[in-house]
Structures are given as structure tokens and as C-alpha cells.
Amino acid sequence: MPMKKVMKGNEAAAWAAKLAKPKVVAAFPITPSTLVPEKISEFVADGEMDAEFIKVESEHSAISACVGASAAGVRTFTATASQGLALMHEVLFIAAGMRLPIVMAIGNRALSAPINIWNDWQDTISERDTGWMQFYAENNQEALDLILIAFKVAEDERVLLPAMVGFDAFILTHTVEPVEIPDQEVVDEFLGEYVPKHAYLDPARPITQGALGFPAHYMEARYTVWEAMENARKVIKEVFDEFEKKFGRRYHMIEEYKTDDAEIILLTMGSLAGTLKEFVDKKREEGIKIGAAKMTVYRPFPIEEIRALAKKAKVLAILEKDISFGIGGAVFADTSRALINEKEKPIMLDFILGLGGRDVTFENLEEVVEISKKALEGEKVEEINWIGLRKEIL
Amino acid sequence: MAESPFKADIERVQKEYSEKMTPGAIVYIPGSSVVNKTGGWRVFMPKFNKDKCVRCFMCYTLCPEPAIYLDEESYPVFDYDYCKGCGICANECPTKAIEMVRESK
Ligand code: SF4
Ligand code: SF4
Fold first, then answer.
1. Comparing C-alpha atoms, which of A99, A134, A105, A332 is closest to residue A226?
2. What is the predicted pLDDT for the residue at B1?
3. Phi first, then psi: what are they for A208, rounded to 5°?
4. How many Å lie between the centroid of ligand 1 and the Cα of residue A206?
5. How far, in Å, CA of B104 to CA of A334, rounded?
6. Which Pfam families match (chain B) (predicted)?
7. Shortest CA distance to A254 belongs to which of A244, A240, A243, A264?
């Protein structure tokens, strides 16, 4: 029987790692994810987890150790956040280029300067072009589930790409919620043992990994990463189906909430989706046709699902906790790309909010709806809006 | 640099590589370390004095390059194709049987 435990998001991630049975976990502590390796170290010390737990002196080394372990042919896990992820940056490309199915839990946190340990998504979104798949969890249960899903997708022969699972700093990492811990046997059935097909060490089969790629080969190598990411769309959906059969919880590339007759749809990722659902219910009571959507998978970008969603809306408002300087929100830019050649598209508005852990309140969301309503009525409004910004102190 | 003993392998792999990309761009031969001799970086080279050696294996164990072999009598033999001249062996040798000398052509 699956058991329910009340736990923090970080613990849920550690539990997911325990259930997935990685052979190597390498990590360096960083707020707000420190508890993930801490909990894993306890599991290993208590003999509940049979993994090599490597303590390193930086995140760059943590991910490098993971690349080494994964290239040697074992299931590998790590966790980090923010500046730690940024310090891993160059190795992230290597992991994806070498097609190593490493899974990493991220407590989504803002980047410096100024130093800020609270939640937004600038860390993972900055890594969107590395070739890592990206999943975003709405709650602690999703953090656990998506890590298991990430392993399954990453290790699929059609994919073989690393994956990161983001869950919002403090909002999830340090908040206790009831989480269902699936049975080990069911997880074993779902994941199976990782049997490396391409990357493993064998004295009878000497190979060079991460070798020089001449101009005659490099482009093809990069294309295969692109192709793998394209394959991932299909594989993720298959794995979502299988996950539902085994564990009873359903995941979607984009999960919709009351969108069928909605004129305004608010699209977001992560824990904010929970707030949006409540907000939608409130606005529905006031008779406003509004819906919400949550992007669970950000890489590969759910292009088809965005197109289907956009057909339902007159205004598509994107609420994102990140900023790509010089253009606007990254999710907004990506969503625009998905819709650029569509004949009919909704009015698209971007809302930058909640950076560095600033609360996203119902008042903020009211403001989003007010601007969206104006746009719906044909009034000219700003395409990119900073919500909750304290202009008076600038 | 002497011709690689893996020349035929390398040519085979390059041919295969240009015909089919492997996942992760793996090359099915051993790494470049067997092909590329790294001794060319050296400024100082270890000079060995057999008379002082007590065969403690410190140099053999601690050489970061594994550039030290043991001969049949367990005396160290330095492989100058790979020795980078870091001097760790000389530093660790308890009997000062290894001396680092400037290497000039
Ligand atoms: S000098 Fe350094 S590399 Fe050369 S043999 Fe001594 S320890 Fe090895
Ligand atoms: S460390 Fe010195 S004494 Fe020991 S084996 Fe090497 S050369 Fe000989």
C-alpha cells in the first residue's frame, strides 16, 4: 500500500531519489535545496539506499561527478538551485551532448545580484537551451512524481537526455504537505533497472566519450540532441499514460482548468498554478469567463498543446516568474513562437511577477485580469507588464 | 610525435563517424591519451639515482600521470613520453633518489 507522509518538497525529492535507486548521487549544499542531499545522506547512512553518495566542493564538481558516473553506466541523481545551477552551466551542455540521462531536482530560486534565496524561475529558465528537459511541479506530490517520470523519460532509448525537475523555493521546498509515497515494487516495475545502451565502461569495449567533434561531425551531433528532444514529446505523453495506470495520478504537458468557455486564460508554471485555480473559481463566481493553464513541461516546449489552448482563448495572459532582459518573459517569447504562424491567435500579454520570492496576491491577479479585460475590449495595453512592482521607490 | 599505433583504428572510426553519428558522439576507440604523448610539456625532468633508491614505491604510487613503471627488480622506470615533470616523485622520495633537473635540448 502506498503510504502518506507529511513532508517538505525537498524531502519529497529525496524520497523520489530513494525510490528510483540511483547508484550515484553527487551534491553540494545550496539553499533552498540543501535538504535534498542531506536527506539522501541519511537514507544512505541508514542503509535504506544503496548509492554512492559523493560530497564535492562545488556544484560544478557535483554535476561533473554525475556526468562521470552516468558515462560509466549507472543511474545518477543530484540536486541544486540558483547560483549552483549557474555554476553547473557548462557541464549541463556536456551532459546533454553526451546523452546522459541524469536527473536533477531544482529548488527554483532567483539569481544574484542582489543575493536572493527566494523563489522565481530565472535559474532553470536560463538553462533552457542546454538540452536538458524541464519539468515544473505545482506541489510536493508533483515534485516526487515528476522526478520518477523524468527518470523514465530520460532513460528511454528514443530520448537519452538529462532532465531537471523544478519546484519553487520555500513555497514548496520548505512547505510541508501530505505526499503519497508509492510502493517500491510499483516504482521498480515502472522504472526498471537502468541498463545503459550507449554510455558505459567495459574493458572489452574501449570507447572515448566527450571526444572532439570536428566541423564535419559537430552539427550532426547537435542535431541528434534536437531530434532526441523532439522524440521526448511523444515519450513524455506515453510515460504520463503509464504513470497514471500505475499510480493513478494524471499529468499533462499543459493542464487546463476551466478553459473550455474561457475568454481570458492565465498560463503559468509551478506552484502559482495552485493559486490561479482558486482565483479562477473566485472570478467565475463573479461571472467572469476566465480559465487557467499550467505548463508542466517547459522543455521540450509543448507547441501543439499551446496551439490547442490558444484556440480556446481570446486573451492569453502569461504569468511568469522570470525575465529575459532585452526581450521580456522567456515563456512569453516561446509561446509566441508556437503561435506565430497560426491564422487565428489570441491577444497575448505577458506578466512578469513574483521575482525573488515576492508574493503573488489576488490583488496582483486582479490587476492581470483588469489589463486583460481592457485588451479584450480593444483598448491598447502594454504587451509586457511588471505586476506588483513598487514603482514609487524607483 | 611518433605515428600512432592506433592509426588504422582511427581511420576506421573516422570513416564510421562520417557515415553514422553515434548517440552522444561516442568514439569506439580508446581515448587520445594513448595516442597523444604528453611528455612534451616538460621543463624539469626526474633524474633517478638507483644507488639511493630503497624501493619504497612512493614515487610509483603518487605519480599523477602514471608515468612510473616498476622494472623486474621493482626499481622505478620513468616513461618520458608521459612524465610532465611535476616533481611530485622527487618531492615524495624519502631518500632523495630522484632529482629534478632542467631539461634542455
Ligand atoms: S615528475 Fe611528475 S609526472 Fe614525472 S614521473 Fe615524477 S611524478 Fe610522474
Ligand atoms: S620514492 Fe625514491 S626510494 Fe621510493 S621507490 Fe621511488 S625512487 Fe625509490
1. A99
2. 46
3. -115, 125
4. 26
5. 60
6. Fer4_21
7. A240
B87 Cβ inside 6 Å of ligand 1:
yes
Q: Which ligand is nearest to the CA of B58?
A: 2
Cα–Cα distance measured from residue B70 to residue B57, given in angstroms and rounded to the nearest whole number: 9
- Residue in chain B lying closest to A200 (CA): B26
What CA–CA distance (Å, rounded) separates A154 from A21? 15
Give ipTM to 2 decimals.
Answer: 0.82
Its pTM stands at: 0.90
Number of A–B residue contacts, CB under 8 Å: 56
SS3 state of residue A195: coil
Query: Atom 6 (ligand 2): residue with closest C-alpha?
Result: B59
Domain boundary assignment for chain A: 3-247, 254-393
Task: Tell me, in angstroms, the distance from the centre of ligand 1 to residue B45's CA.
Answer: 8
Tell whether the torsion through CA atoms of A374, A379, A382 and A384 is positive or negative: positive
The mean per-residue pLDDT over the stretch A272-285 comes to 97
Mean pLDDT of A256-283: 98
Contact (Cβ atoms closer than 8 angstroms) between residue B55 and residue B75: yes
Q: B30: which chain A residues are within 8 Å (Cβ-Cβ)?
A: 206-208
CA A376 to centroid of ligand 1, rounded, Å: 74
Q: How confident is the model at residue A168 (pLDDT cuts 50, 70, 90)?
A: very high
Identify the CATH assignment for A254-393 out of 3.40.630.10, 3.40.50.720, 1.20.1250.20, 3.40.50.920: 3.40.50.920
CB within 8 Å of A325: residues ≥ 6 apart: none
DSSP-assigned letters across all residues of B3-33 = PPTTHHHHHHHHHHHHH-PPGGG-BSS--GG
User: Among A351, A352, A342, A354, which residue's Cα sits nearest to residue A309?
Assistant: A342
Nearest to A283 by CA among A169, A203, A370, A194: A370
- The three-class DSSP label of residue B40 is helix
CA separation, residue B53 to residues A393, B60, B77, B80 (Å): 75, 12, 12, 19
Contact A217 B28 (CB under 8 A): no
Mean pLDDT for all residues in chain B: 87
| Chain A residues within 8 A of B19 when measuring between CB atoms | none
Domains of chain B: 52-99 (3.30.70.20)
Whether the CA torsion A380, A385, A387, A389 is positive or negative: it is: negative
